[in-house]
Amino acid sequence: MHCQDSEQIRQTLEAVFNDILAQRMRDMPVLNPVLAVRALGFDRYHADWVGMLITPWFMNLLLLPSADSQWPTQAPGSKFDQTFPYGSFEFVVADEWQLGRYAQCSLFSPIFQFADQAAAVTAAESALQALLAVPAPRAISRRDLLRGNLVRP
Q1: pTM of the model
Q2: Which domain holds residue 25?
Q3: Average pLDDT in the 39-62 region?
Q4: Does residue 126 fall inside a structural domain?
Q5: pLDDT band with cut points at 50, 70 and 90 for residue 153
């Protein structure tokens, strides 16, 4: 899927992962029943589109390719590092027949620590904003990013 705009990306991701929820994940014990599929962000960052995907079974940072992206030639399951203003994160290349190639960085899986959808959305929005806005003089863990531990020593 070569992406055209943020709204198209969010709608496509939500449709695809709602299908996965209904067809493959139904009745799985890893589901947080208070959460729903929600895609956030998906603005251009260099050659890629970056955003967060919340599902009842994970919260992942996703990269979707543009025509200029280099990583989509890598095999599914392969890993690469992507640098953001906040630091470098490891992504795993994935392939979903309805989407094509995308890359994911797991932040929470399973995702039982959120009491409701609003809390998950707030955490995802905060993490995405911090990822793209804060200079990184040191490496940062995904957990610190999501917990808002943005204070530098």
Answers
A1: 0.84
A2: 6-147
A3: 95
A4: yes
A5: very low
